[in-house]
Each structure stands twice: as structure tokens, then as C-alpha cells.
Amino acid sequence: MSVPSAEDLSGAGDLAALASALAALDEVILGKPHQLRLCVTCLLAGGHLLIEDIPGVGKTTLAHGLARSLGLSYQRIQFTSDLLPADIVGVSIFDREAARFHFHPGPVFAQLVLADEVNRATPKAQSALLEAMEERQVTVDGKSHPLPDPFFVVATQNPEDQAGTFPLPESQLDRFLMRIRLGYPERALERELLRGEDRRELLARLVPAAGPQALLRLRREVTAVHASDALLDYVQALVAWSRERSGFGAGLSPRAAISLLRAARAWTLLDGRHSVIPEDVQAVTPAVVGHRLRGEGEAAGSDAGDRLVAAVPVP
């Protein structure tokens, strides 16, 4: 009988802590276990999350609850039409006594940053997030400043047909590993919301079940999750179908394929397994590819990922 190593025991403990965090979040965000698991999957995969939905369905509550349950430092940035890049990344201010500039970090210097209603800001303000999301650093006056580790952006977005929105460009959308929607709650759960406590009071009582170091350890484990050649064939088949399908302006890029595999590995690890199967890929595909596929008419849209999974058989 083999004895578990200290590393195995640590990994099991971290996964148990993550499961506790998900259970606590499920008490605040009712009836959305799949979306909550996608959020944690996105974090473990080292990506950023876009939540697109109408106001009032719990997008901000979800981001705040995610930070509290995982023990992450948290900052909320309200994106408006007059927001400036310096309001996000920070600014250098001249100190006359020391005769030099001092950098004052902006709200982006947190482990979990909520970019609330990101598409209500101008493209110039939106672009301030690009370097932070991709490089995990910001550059001000020619000097680079590293961001905390882990660093995770949760952006909320109102539907583009609502007044006062600026559509996110493809380069910005591609920085998000996943896009999800929460939707309306079921009738019975909505009744529970009406009868129950205020969500803000529940958030205030959330106790961190995991912490930044546990997340960093699990991220390292994600990279070690095995993907067979047959599984890679399946990922490539999905990507190839998106490129060959008539009506798509452009298919999935190599970066999208890497993102899909990374998300599938994180989903697998959450199950306590160490080898990816096609069902893991199928579980994350809609969230990973839906915002990356653009086309005319019915060629792309919110269900593009579901149709992609349905169209491509497992090799």
C-alpha cells in the first residue's frame, strides 16, 4: 500500500478548501452551481472572466463573493464614460521635498479586480486594462510595476443593445479566458431571495475557505494535468471546424485553442482527476469560445460554443 506524499496531501487539502468556498458561494448566488464552477475554473486556469448580463442578476455580488470566499484582496472599478486610464492604473506625483516622482498605485493593484460595467467606458479607458490582463504589470512613465499574484480580473458587461455602451474590441475580448451569463433565477429560488437575507449581509459573513497560496499551488497542478494525443486531436478538431465553417468572420486562433485546453485541465483538476477527457473539454467550450466567434446571422452568437460541441464528433 502506497503512502500519499506531502504534496498529494497538500493538493487534496487545497481542493477541499476550494470545494468549501464553492459551497459557501452557492449559499449567496442561488441556483448557479455550473456558473460558479466555471468562475473557479477560470481562476485556476490563470485567466480572466467576463460576465455579460442585464443589471440586477448578481454579477457584482458574484465577484465580491468570489474574492471573500477565496481570501483575495479586492477592488471595484466603476467604468463610466469619463473614466481615465490613470484612474485604473495609478499616477506618478512629484514630491517637491524629495525632488522626485512617487508612483501612487491605482485600484488595479489587487488580487481580484472587478471592472464593473466595463463597456460603459470609452475604448481609451478600456485599453488601460490590456497590459494588466496580459502582462500582469502596468507601465507608467516608462517604468513597469508588477501586479499581485494571483491577479484576476472579473469584468461585468451590459448587453450591447443597452444605451451608453461601447462594444469591446476583439483584442480586449480575447484577453478574457471565459464569458458567462447568470440569467434569471428559477421561480422557487427567486422566492427564496425575496424571503431571505440581504445578499450584502451574507457577503459580510463569508469566511475565506482558501487563500492565495492555495490557489497558486493548484495553478501549478493544473499545468501537470495530462492531455493525451487523442484529446489533443479533439481540441484541434473543434478549432478546425470553427475555421472551416462558412459564415464565421474568423475561426478560433491558436491562443483560443491553448485557452480551451487550459480551461479543460482546470475543470479536470476540480474533479480531483489528473487526465482530461472529452467531457471536460465540452463542459468549458461554450464559455471559452462564445465571445471569440464572430459572424453574420446565425453563424455565431451566444450559443456558438454549444453548436460547436454538437457539430464535432469525438475522434
Concise overview:
This protein is an alpha/beta fold and 315 residues long. The protein is built from 13 helices and eleven strands.
Give the second-level CATH assignment, the architecture of the largest domain. 3-Layer(aba) Sandwich
Largest sheet: 5 strands, parallel
Gross morphology: globular
Low-confidence stretches: 1-7
Give, in order, the helices and strands. Answer: HHEHEHEEEHEEEHEHHHHEHHEH
* Terminus-to-terminus distance: 37 Å
Residue-averaged pLDDT, rounded? 86
For CATH, the homologous superfamily of the largest domain is named as P-loop containing nucleotide triphosphate hydrolases
Number of helical regions? 13
Helix content: 40-55%
Structural commentary:
The chain has 315 residues and is an alpha/beta fold. It is built from 13 helices and eleven strands. The protein has helices at 6-28, 33-44, 59-69, 85-89, 123-135, 170-173, 187-195, 199-204, 212-224, 229-244, 254-270, 278-289, 304-311, and strands spanning 49-52, 74-78, 90-95, 100-105, 112-116, 137-140, 143-146, 152-157, 178-180, 248-250, 294-295. It has a five-stranded parallel sheet. The chain has a two-stranded antiparallel ribbon with strand order 3-4. The model is unreliable at 1-7 (pLDDT under 50).
Keywords:
disordered N terminus; 315 residues; Rossmann fold; 11 strands; two-stranded antiparallel sheet; 2 domains; alpha/beta; globular; Helicase, Ruva Protein, domain 3; five-stranded parallel β-sheet
